Automatic annotation (TrEMBL):
It comes from Fusarium oxysporum (strain Fo5176). Residues 80-114 form a coiled coil. Residues 25-44 are annotated as: Disordered. The lineage of its organism: Eukaryota, Fungi, Dikarya, Ascomycota, Pezizomycotina. Residues 25-43 have a biased composition (Basic residues). Keywords: Coiled coil. Pfam families: DUF4238. The keyword Coiled coil applies. InterPro entries: DUF4238. It comes from the Eukaryota. This is DUF4238 domain-containing protein.
Length: 731
C-alpha cells in the first residue's frame, strides 16, 4: 500500500501531449482570439501546456495548465484493502499498458500524419488497443465516482444487490476495493485469439463488469477518423472516453422518486488520440456494406436494432446521428472481397490466430461529423470539470456550432441531469460566456424545457419483451427451422396455432394476465364478498378465451410468479437478462403441455397422485377444469395469492389427511352437473382440485375458480369458443 501522496492520471500524458503546445507567455494578456494566454505562476517557458476551459469556476475559465497536472487525482489507484490479492502496484501496471499502447498509437499517428491511406496492426495489437480503450472508460471519473462509496450499503447504482452479494462472497470491505480488483484483473488478462478469455474473466472479477468489458470489445469495430478540413480539430474532456452517441431514457419511480436505471443504446464510442485523430467504435447494429451483402447478416443486424429500439418511448425515432459516418470494418488477412462480398481468402480456414493482420484505413470525415462528435462531448460536460482544446480558432468554431445548432437533440435543459455535477442550464450559461470570450458574436440557443414538463413514459419489462418478440418473430420463423420444430411450437400447433395466429395469441394472453393482475391487486382492498366476486369474475372471463390463449396465459402467469423472475428483479442490472430468461421460460415444458399432449393421444390428462375411482371411464376428449381455494393472508404480496402452476396441473403434493374430505367434496360438486356431462376427480392436492370432464365440443380448456366457501362452490358451466375474441386492458 502506498503511503505518499501521488498525482495519478486517468488520461495518460502521452495523449495529453498530443493536445498540448509549448508554453510561451503572451505580452497580449488574455487575448484568446489570437491564441494568447495569462502567464501562470510556476510554469516555465517551453513546458508542455494545455488550453483548458475550467467548468468549475465562473471566473478565469480560459487558461493554460501543465500537462503533468491535468486530468488526474491524488492517490486515485492506491490499494486500500487486503482484498487486492496482486502485490503489483496498479499505477505501475497501468504505466506498462500505457507504454505499450503509446508505441502502437505513435505508429498509427505517424502513418496518418505522413498521408498513408491506412495501417496494418496484428491481432495482439488490436486487442491491446481495445483493452486500453476500456481501461480509459473504466478508470475515468464516472466509474471512479461510482465505486467511491465507503461501504456496500452506501453504493446505490442499479447493480447494488449483485455487488453486495459479490462483496460478501469474496470478502471485499468496500466497493472501491472491487473496482481496484477489477482493474487488476483486466490488466492481467491475456486476450487469446480463440476467445477463451471471455469465459475466464467472470471467474476472476465482478461478473457484471466482466460482461461489460466483453460487450465493449465484441459489440463494435474500430475505425480511425481524421478531419477532412485542415482547420478542424477534436476536443478532449474528462469523460470523452466514457460517453457514447445514442439514445438514453432515464426511468424514475413515479411513487418514490427512486432511480430505476436507464435504457440506452450505444451506437458510437470514442477514443481521442490527438486533435487530428480519433478512434471511433461503431456498433454492430449499424449497417456495414460488405457484411450486409449477406442477407442473413443484414436481417440479423436489423433484428437486433429493432429489438433494442422497442425499449424506448418512440422506437421509430431510435436512429444514430452518425449513421452516415463514412467508415467500415478493417479487413483482416483471413478474408477477401470477391464480387462485392466477403469470403475466406485462399488457403485460410477462418480460424483466429495471434498473427492475423488487420488493415485499418484512415477515414477522412467532414466538418459536420467532426462537429457532431465534439458536440457529443460538449453535451456531456455536466459530469466534467474541464475541456481541453488544441487551438482557439478551431475550438471557437466547433463550440459555436454546438451552441447555435437546433438539431440532433442537444442542449435540452432538465434532461440527462441525473447525478451530474452542475445543471445543464448553468453549464450552457458558462459555455456561452466562454464563446463570447473567444470572440464569437453569435447568440447561443437551447431547449429550455424543464424535465417536469416532459410527458412520462414507463414501460414494463414484460411489455418491452412482447414488443421485441413481435420484431424478432417474423424473421425467426422464416429463417429458423429449430424454432418451428421445437417442443413449444409442437404444443401450440396441437391447439390449432399457426404462424399467422401466434403474435395475436401471445399479445392477448399477456393482456389477460395484465387484466387478472390489475383486478387481483385492486380487489384485495375491497370488502370481502365484493373482492372475492371480482376475482372469481375475472377468472371466469379469462377461461372463455380460445385454449391457445389460455395455454399461453398460463405460461405468462408461471413466469411472473417464478422465483427466477423475482431474483432477476432483485439483482437488476438492465433488462436484457430478464428478457432472455422470459423467452427461455416461455419455451420450457410445463404440466400444461402434458395436458395438451394427452389430448393429442386422445387420452385425458391423469396426473397420478391417488388411485382413480373404479368407475372412471376416460372419454374420447376432455376439458380440464380446476377448482382452487385462495391463499391467506390476503395482505401478502400478489404473487403469493396464486399457488405455483405446477400445483395447478397436478404435482402430487399428497395431502393424505384431507384426501377423503376433498374427494367427497369433488363428488358432491359433480352431482350438480348434468348426467351426460359427468365429472371425474383425478387429482387431489392441498391447493387445488383437478377434474376431467367429457365435452367433445371443446378440445381442451384450463379453468381456474376461486373457492372461499368449500361446500357452496358453483360449477363453472360451459363456455362457447366458436370464435375467439380480443380484450384490451387499460393501463
Amino acid at each position: 500500500m502506498q503511503t505518499n501522496s501521488q498525482y495519478q492520471h486517468y488520461i495518460p500524458q502521452f495523449i495529453l501531449r498530443n493536445f498540448s503546445h509549448r508554453y510561451k507567455p503572451s505580452k497580449r494578456k488574455g487575448n484568446w482570439k489570437h491564441g494568447g494566454s495569462r502567464p501562470k505562476k510556476g510554469m516555465r517557458k517551453g513546458e508542455n501546456v494545455l488550453n483548458i476551459v475550467d467548468l468549475t469556476s465562473d471566473q478565469d475559465q480560459l487558461r493554460e495548465e501543465p500537462v503533468s497536472r491535468w486530468f488526474g487525482q491524488i492517490n486515485m489507484y492506491n490499494d486500500t484493502a487486503a482484498a487486492i490479492n496482486s502485490q503489483k502496484n496498479l499505477e505501475e501496471e497501468l504505466s506498462k499498458l500505457e507504454s505499450r499502447t503509446a508505441a502502437i498509437l505513435q505508429k498509427v499517428k505517424k502513418a496518418q500524419e505522413a498521408g498513408e491511406p491506412g495501417i496494418y496492426l496484428n491481432r495482439s495489437e488490436r486487442n491491446l488497443l481495445r483493452k486500453f480503450l476500456f481501461i480509459m472508460k473504466y478508470r475515468g471519473l464516472g466509474f471512479y465516482g461510482k465505486y467511491r462509496s465507503g461501504d456496500q450499503y452506501s453504493y446505490t447504482s442499479e447493480d447494488k444487490n449483485l455487488l453486495r452479494s459479490y462483496m460478501s462472497e469474496k470478502g471485499f470491505e468496500n466497493p472501491r476495493d472491487v473496482w481496484l480488483h477489477n482493474l487488476h484483473a483486466i490488466l492481467d488478462l491475456e486476450m487469446d485469439a480463440e476467445g477463451k478469455w471471455m469465459t475466464k474473466l467472470p471467474e476472476v472479477m465482478f461478473p457484471a463488469d466482466a460482461a461489460m468489458f466483453t460487450y465493449h470489445v465484441q459489440s463494435s469495430y474500430t475505425a480511425f477518423c481524421t478531419p477532412k478540413e485542415d482547420d478542424d480539430e477534436f476536443i478532449l474532456t474528462d469523460q470523452c472516453y466514457n460517453v457514447f452517441e445514442g439514445p438514453i431514457h432515464e426511468v424514475t419511480s413515479p411513487l418514490t422518486g427512486e432511480d430505476l436505471g436507464s435504457t440506452y443504446l450505444c451506437f458510437h464510442e470514442f477514443g481521442p488520440i490527438s486533435s487530428r485523430l480519433i478512434i471511433v467504435l461503431r456498433s454492430f447494429v449499424l449497417p456495414e456494406a460488405l457484411e450486409d451483402a449477406n442477407q442473413k447478416i443484414r436481417e440479423a443486424r436489423q433484428t437486433y436494432l429493432d429489438g433494442a429500439a422497442v425499449q424506448f418511448p418512440r422506437p421509430d425515432n431510435v436512429k444514430s446521428i452518425l449513421a452516415d459516418l463514412p467508415v467500415a470494418k478493417a479487413m483482416n488477412s483471413n478474408m477477401a472481397v470477391v464480387n462485392g462480398k466477403l469470403e475466406l481468402a485462399p488457403g485460410k480456414t477462418g480460424k483466429a490466430r495471434p498473427s492475423d493482420k488487420f488493415c485499418f484505413r484512415f477515414w477522412p470525415i467532414k466538418r459536420k461529423h467532426v462537429d457532431i462528435i465534439n458536440s457529443v462531448f460538449l453535451d456531456n460536460v455536466l459530469h466534467c470539470q474541464s475541456i481541453v482544446f488544441r487551438s482557439a480558432p478551431s475550438f471557437r468554431r466547433t463550440l459555436e456550432a454546438y451552441m447555435t445548432t437546433d438539431s440532433y437533440g442537444f442542449k435540452k435543459v432538465g434532461v440527462g441531469e441525473r447525478g451530474t455535477r452542475i445543471s445543464r442550464r448553468m453549464c450552457l450559461q458558462r459555455l456561452s460566456t466562454v464563446l463570447k470570450a473567444l470572440g464569437s458574436d453569435n447568440a447561443p440557443i437551447w431547449h429550455d424545457e424543464e424535465e417536469a414538463n416532459h410527458s412520462s413514459y414507463l414501460q414494463s419489462i414484460d411489455d418491452s419483451w412482447l414488443e421485441i418478440i413481435k420484431k424478432f418473430y417474423g424473421r425467426s420463423m422464416d429463417s429458423s427451422s429449430e424454432f418451428r420444430e421445437s417442443h413449444f411450437w409442437g404444443i401450440y400447433s396441437t391447439l390449432g396455432g399457426t404462424k399467422e395466429t401466434f403474435l395475436k395469441d401471445l399479445e392477448q394472453s399477456w393482456r389477460l394476465y395484465r387484466l387478472q393482475a390489475l383486478v387481483f391487486n385492486v380487489s384485495w382492498g375491497l370488502d370481502g364478498h365484493v373482492g372475492r366476486q371480482a376475482r372469481v369474475n375475472v377468472v371466469h372471463f379469462i377461461v372463455q378465451f380460445h385454449p391457445r390463449r389460455v395455454w399461453l396465459y398460463v405460461k405468462h402467469l408461471r413466469w411472473m410468479l417464478s422465483e427466477e423472475y423475482a431474483r432477476l428483479q432483485e439483482t437488476y442490472i438492465g433488462i436484457a437478462p430478464i428478457l432472455a430468461a422470459k423467452s427461455r421460460s416461455l419455451k420450457e415444458p410445463g404440466p400444461e403441455d402434458d395436458i395438451v399432449k394427452s389430448l393429442k393421444a386422445k387420452k385425458p390428462y391423469l396426473p397420478i397422485s391417488w388411485p382413480q375411482p373404479s368407475s372412471f371411464n376416460p372419454p374420447e376428449s376432455c376439458t380440464v377444469t380446476m377448482l382452487r381455494r385462495s391463499l391467506q393472508p390476503p395482505n401478502e404480496a400478489f404473487r403469493t395469492h396464486m399457488p405455483d402452476l405446477i400445483s395447478y396441473f397436478g404435482a402430487a403434493l399428497g395431502d393424505h389427511e384431507r384426501k377423503d374430505e376433498l374427494h367427497a367434496m369433488a363428488m358432491e360438486i359433480g352431482k350438480t352437473w348434468k348426467e351426460e356431462d359427468p365429472t371425474y376427480c383425478t387429482t387431489v392436492v392441498p391447493h387445488c382440485l383437478i377434474f376431467v370432464r367429457a365435452n367433445p365440443d371443446i378440445p381442451i380448456l384450463f379453468g381456474v375458480d376461486c373457492w372461499e366457501e368449500r361446500r357452496k362452490l358453483p360449477p363453472m358451466g360451459h363456455f362457447s369458443l366458436e370464435a375467439p375474441f380480443d380484450v384490451k386492458v387499460a393501463s
